Amino acid sequence: xxxxxxxxxxxxxxxxxxxxxxxxxxxxxxxxxxxxxxxxxxxxxxxxxxxxxxxxxxxxxxxxxxxxxxxxxxxxxxxxxxxxxxxxxxxxxxxxxxxxxxxxxxxxxxxxxxxxxxxxxxxxxxxxxxxxxxxxxxxxxxxxxxxxxxxxxxxxxxxxxxxxxxxxxxxxxxxxxxxxxxxxxxxxxxxxxxxxxxxxxxxxxxxxxxxxxxxxxxxxxxxxxxxxxxxxxxxxxxxxxxxxxxxxxxxxxxxxxxxxxxxxxxxxxxxxxxxxxxxxxxxxxxxxxxxxxxxxxxxxxxxxxxxxxxxxxxxxxxxxx
Length: 321
Hints:
Number of helices: 13
Oligomer: single chain
Distance between the termini: 21 Å
Largest sheet: 8 strands, parallel
Number of strands: 12
């Protein structure tokens, strides 16, 4: 059901469970995502598949659904001959589909509209590198119209996600000014640096003074890198941390295939919580099964909680999952 409480208020009290990777669930349903628009293509001609994928995560226990707009941009749709008016309708449709799927349960379900990086629109793997050769002002001009269109669709939050670069993070934070929505800022990282090579202390520090940012952290990265990044994000910003890594498999952009084995372990949530994480879930190749396991861990933590809620929601305090 549609939530009665702002997401930020809930994060101050407890840990909230995100969904997992949308694309892998769509592929499990038989969808072909080889198109440059990736999952956003389905908004055009198979949106019922997106609805079904969201519902799979609701059944798994997710409390936040991230929309299918990661790779949806005015520019990407324009290459298909789709005008700005129709593109805005498709952005709104992505929010509507997640909201409708969340209405299938009597639990509160928050909808976060996905705002992917500039590189996702290029569909060449550059979102894993950053450093596009564009200025902060140019990146802001790219992101602002889409953010305005998504905000008008009425999600509960914006997910500024898979950000590879400090310059793009700065542009996104500028672009969300005046949008009227809470946001989270989530970097894609490698080791202790952004994908573009900047120290995480610098990257997370950009969000420290922004009241609109209700959580900061990492996604679309190796689980081991996420472990370390959670502590850094909490220490630098004092904000709740968001963490939703990949399965541990690696994306080969040239071969357009995943390689290696999965290392995602739902049991990591205990360490994430202890370090300050309050929004937890999975990204690429993390499906409803692991999300259901995360839900079990969080529920077990609630059942075993004996010390009340002192310190809940404060990084370094006693977490209440």
